Amino acid sequence: MLKEQLAPVAAREFAPVFVALELSRAKWLVGVGTPQQWTVRRHQVAGGDVAGLAALLRRIGAGEEQRSGRPARVHVCFEAGRDGHWLHRALQAAGYDVYEIEPASVAVDRRARRVKSDGVDVDKLVRTLARLLRGEFDACRVVVVPSEAEEDAKRPHREYERLVKERTGHCNRIKALLFAQGIRDFAPMAPDRLQRLAALPIMPRLKAELSRECRRLATVIDDLNEAEAEMAASVIAPDKATAKRAAVPMPDPLRTKVAQLFRLKSLGVHFSTVLGGEVYYRTFQNRRKVAQYLGLAPSPFQSGDKAREQGCGTSPTARSPNGSGSASATSGGATGASPSSPWRANWPSRCGATSRAGCSPRAPSSSAAEPTRQRATASAVRRIREGPVTAPCPGRQKPAGEIGPVHPGPRDL
């Protein structure tokens, strides 16, 4: 509720104003609330009109100052989504207190037919922001917004992952079209793919389609090699990088972390860049938050006489490595495994879970091994944060300047 006696944030030295934005392509719906009034006022701004939004916020702040006789402090929130983080940075640079909220963390009515509209959503966001600012930290989860340099450092490995998917799609399409003609031994990744395609006894229109598909595949392969070279140039020493691999450097702290990860056993350029850019650029307060970010936190289910463990989360935060073993492996210990290892494939047999007809197997229970993986992941965070790695892990030593195989191995996927 937005009552003054229930809102400690309404201190005597300023008058708080709670503003929520419901963003869309055509228009932005702005909801405004104060501790003295339950009703949420609504305004409308054209989509993308930051100048118009800033003018509206100034008018709202001036009106609250005139009404209360105290300086107004405007708090703004909106749900993270398609617009990214640019609006957060723009409003923060203008001097406003901005919160980017995770949409799934906002509590909603659990009835089967709940009312859903932009007006209802913006009212809910205003009241959620008021709860958060008066000390109810479980009201929602606030997104940690990276800096522009940190966000830009994510581009190479994200583009690399997207290009790998495109390459796989083109290869599968070529193989499927030829398989339907009884041709099973065609290799789309071979350099002489066009010459081999020209010699195939197939119909002309199908051959023309496959030629265009092969040309698109060649373009994707070139882009993939360029993205991989850009990641390698950010990891290896500058004096060993060739002129072709010269790229925009990462921020120094992030580049240092990626280089430290690359020195560890079995970590290639791509996986080191993913861990550094998606996980270890953040600061975690404890190992539980690391586990939650990576999808390792347990999920207990307890209600009345029912008590069971649903297993560790299998859906890590978007863009983080898929699975606990990927991050645990960076600690150099034997705990955890790679996402493609048999550990995940053998969940039912390892954890005693059974499978009924039409039901998928249960995830493993969070037993004593789960805190072990959490500690291993947290130790990797501390090693990367506190200082350089003095020596690589035992095993094969990487020669100076080596950047690993051109195509990622199982640990790099």
Structural class: alpha/beta
CATH class of the largest domain: Alpha Beta
- Tell me what portion of residues adopts beta-strand conformation: 5-15%
CATH architecture field of the largest domain = 2-Layer Sandwich
Can you describe what's shown?
The protein is of the alpha/beta class and 413 residues long. The chain folds into three domains: 4-145, Nucleotidyltransferase, domain 5, CATH 3.30.420; 150-249; 258-350 and 364-412, no CATH class. The chain contains 14 helices and seven strands. It has helices at 50-68, 86-93, 118-133, 148-153, 155-179, 193-198, 204-235, 252-263, 269-278, 287-294, 324-328, 342-345, 347-351, 369-386, and strands at 15-23, 27-34, 37-46, 72-79, 97-101, 298-303, 306-312. The strands form two sheets. Strands 3-2-1-4-5 form a five-stranded mixed β-sheet, with helices on both faces. A two-stranded antiparallel sheet has the order 6-7. Strand 1 and strand 2 (27-34) form a beta hairpin. Helix 5 (155-179) runs antiparallel to helix 7, helix 8 packs across helix 9 (269-278) and helix 10 packs across helix 14 (369-386). The two termini are 47 Å apart. Residues 1-11, 323-368 and 388-413 have low confidence and may be disordered.
